[in-house]
Amino acid sequence: MEVIRCIEELLTPSLEALGYEVVRVQFNGEQRQTLQIMIERVDGKGVTVDDCADVSRSISALLDVEDPISKNYTLEVSSPGIDRPLTRMKDFARYAGFEVRIELKKSIDGRKKFKGPLLGLDGTNIMMAVDGRETILPFDFIHSAKLILTDELIMASNEERQV
Predict the structure, then answer these.
(1) pLDDT at residue 1, as a whole number
(2) For the whole model, what pTM was predicted?
(3) 25 pairs with which residues across the strands?
(4) Beta strands 111-122 and 125-130: pairing type?
(5) Which of 78, 102, 124 is the last residue of a domain?
(6) I want to staple 102 with a disulfide (CB 3.0 to 4.6 A). Which of 28, 85, 115, 145 is the partner?
(7) 143 — pLDDT class (breaks 50, 70, 90)
(8) Mean of the per-residue pLDDT values for the chain?
(9) DSSP 110-123
């Protein structure tokens, strides 16, 4: 986890200068390791293949100089996609009203997995409707959260692209 945090801190200023934000950094794989950097544009437009290539070239040089990973790895730069992960507080506010799947690090009332419409934020808590009831989940408890691909999400994504 320290390596991921170090990489994110290393890359964030350069990516922001280029007009991008880091959505998520992951380091996966046992034998063939992959460093995945998920980005989105600050201007709200969709991420293109050219954006990913530009970012890849820029951060490759930075990673080569700083060398935060001692083993060989493959660098992968991508957009979050429609059914994106929600990793930042602002993601939960932005996607209020859409279906989400959340898994917690620790259980609340004997439960770690939640699915339902995202209602927004209450301070540092995530609010969602689960089984017809408002449920409050502390942001710090979240292990993973992801939008669920629905017709409403697809329609909203198409509308966003037309703007």
Answers:
(1) 63
(2) 0.86
(3) 37
(4) antiparallel
(5) 78
(6) 145
(7) very high
(8) 92
(9) TEEEEEEEEEEEET
Spatial contact of 127 and 120, defined as CB atoms under 8 Å apart = yes
Is the pLDDT at 2 greater than 90? The verdict is: no
Please check whether residues 103 and 65 belong to one and the same domain. Answer: no
Percent of the chain's residues with pLDDT above 70 = 97
Residue 60 neighbours by CB under 8 Å, 6+ apart? 75
Residue pointed to by tokens 């994110």: 8
Q: Is 65 exposed, middle or buried (0-12, 13-18, 19+ CB in 10 A)?
A: exposed
Whether residue 154 sits in one domain with residue 110: yes
- Going 122 to 146 to 107 to 25, the CA torsion angle's sign is negative
Yes or no: say if 125 and 136 are a contact pair by the CB < 8 Å rule.
yes
Alpha-carbon separation of residue 151 from 1, 91, 148, 157, 158 (angstroms): 35, 19, 10, 10, 11
